Amino acid sequence: MMEFSDLELRKLLKFIRIAKDQSRELYEAMIDIETYGEVDHDGMPVVNSLELKEDIEDMDRLIKKIALHLSVEE
Q1: Beta-bridge mates of residue 39
Q2: Would the N or C end of the chain have less CB density within 10 A of its end CB?
Q3: Cα dihedral angle (37, 41, 42, 48), rounded to 10 degrees?
Q4: Cα 39 from chain centre
Q5: How far is residue 11 from each of residues 31, 36, 67, measured CA to CA in Å?
Q6: pTM of the model
Q7: pLDDT at 38
Q8: Is 47 helix (H, G, I), strand (E, B) or coil?
Q9: What is the predicted pLDDT for the residue at 17?
């Protein structure tokens, strides 16, 4: 089993938070695209905001779990 040091977990938490913020911005842009009906050559939506929303929720859960783990160890 792989273990991370507290420093590595803090860095990972920082990177996940940045990724979540960027994903949230992308999600909002994707909603606009879906709202205005942009489609690719097959007539399918250019993007799928539902998948990204689920990823954001997963990142949120991971952030909370790592933060809780770090606060318990301090």
Answers
A1: 45
A2: N
A3: -50
A4: 24
A5: 30, 38, 11
A6: 0.69
A7: 62
A8: coil
A9: 95
Contact 59, 18 (CB under 8 A): no
User: Which residues 6+ apart lie within 8 Å of 56 measured at CB?
Assistant: 20, 23, 24, 27
Specify burial of residue 64 (Cβ count, 10 A radius: 0-12, 13-18, 19+).
exposed
Contact 27, 52 (CB under 8 A): yes
Interaxial angle between packed helices 49-73 and 6-35, expressed in degrees from 0 to 180 and rounded to the nearest 10: 160
Token pair belonging to 1: 């089993």
**8 A C-beta contact, residue 70 and residue 17:** no
Per-residue pLDDT, 41 = 61
What's the confidence (pLDDT) of residue 39? Answer: 59
Q: What span, in angstroms and rounded, lies between the C-alpha atoms of 27 and 7?
A: 30
The per-residue pLDDT for range 8-64, each reduced to its tens digit, is 999 999 999 999 999 999 888 888 777 776 656 666 655 577 888 899 999 999 999
